[in-house]
Amino acid sequence: MMDKETLLRTARFQTPDYIPMTFHVNQACWENYDQAALQDLIMEHSRLFPDYIPHRLPYIPDYPPYADAALPFTDPWGSVWKTSMSGIIGAVVEHALDSWEKFDGFKAPDPEKTTHWGPIDWEQEASGSNPIGFFSCLRSGEIGHGHTFLKLIDLRGYTNLMFDMMDEEPKLLRLIGMVEEFNLGLAGNFLNRAKVAWLGFAEDLGMQQGPMLSPDLFRKYIKPSYKKLMKLTKDAGAVVHMHSDGDIKTLFDDILDCGVEVLNVQDLVNGIDWLEHEAKGRVCLDLDVDRQGLTYSGSPAQIDELIRQEVSRLGDKRGGLMLIYGLYPGVPLENARALMDAMERYTGYFS
What we know:
By secondary structure, the chain is α/β, with parallel strands linked by helices. It has two domains: 1-75 and 289-351, no CATH class; 95-266, Alpha-Beta Barrel (TIM Barrel), CATH 3.20.20.210. The chain has 13 helices and ten strands. The strands form two sheets. A seven-stranded parallel β-sheet has the order 1-10-9-8-7-6-5. A three-stranded antiparallel β-sheet has the order 2-3-4, with no helix packed on it. The radius of gyration is 20 Å and the shape is globular.
């Protein structure tokens, strides 16, 4: 539910006509809910799904190889992934560089030929209307969830990486340089060949309480790459979007210093109070609505109140607020309906 002008005016605090709302239905839902009921629910909410084309039922999703439970997936860096539920990206079960003994001769993928997930034809993307993006209303891109910090974890494993950072392992700086060079190549292709107006940098940095690495380690090993990627994007005139799950309060100032313009951040993990007093007005909030607690086990009335509180406390007539919700298996459909109803109801709160 958005158009290009409103989206950009929201990101730039230029008084949009409404609050952009996105409701994403994960592919796994089609094998875990009654398909007719799920499709009816989508079709009843045309403001959220204006371009939805009904599936012919029964619908069998076409899962990408990295989200298919039938087979393990080896990514372009050589790490092996498995998932237990098709439609949802799993976890690395074999780290390509679990030992530094494997580093000699190790090569990064070629950003002219592949993303972090698989092959890409940049000529085809350049001619398309919406390359690997979030929106149908403007050209957008995303360089790959887990592009820097999580990519290092994918390659080394979390424990190994933490020891590498604390021990100031010299090979780590070489590996970071390889990852950075690949990411800059990807970002450059999105900006210069695909001509995106919005580029996303998705990277989970937080846990349920606190970040996965200290602010000092973030500044030393991760922030320099972020700054280069985001400067490249801003210099090209594109909007810099970043996503991070988890509690990132202690990293917030450093994240903004990298050049982030739109921040997709979880609501209840970071807290509406903190978001209202520390983040509102400093960056456009692409608010990730709770998927772990209240929307899973709460009542429809509680869900409506949550959305109303978020819009009224974090929104502003000047803009700077978007909301997104991702539906995954396990959430009752009556709660999904309550979310859809509330998002359509409050989209015009500041009109």
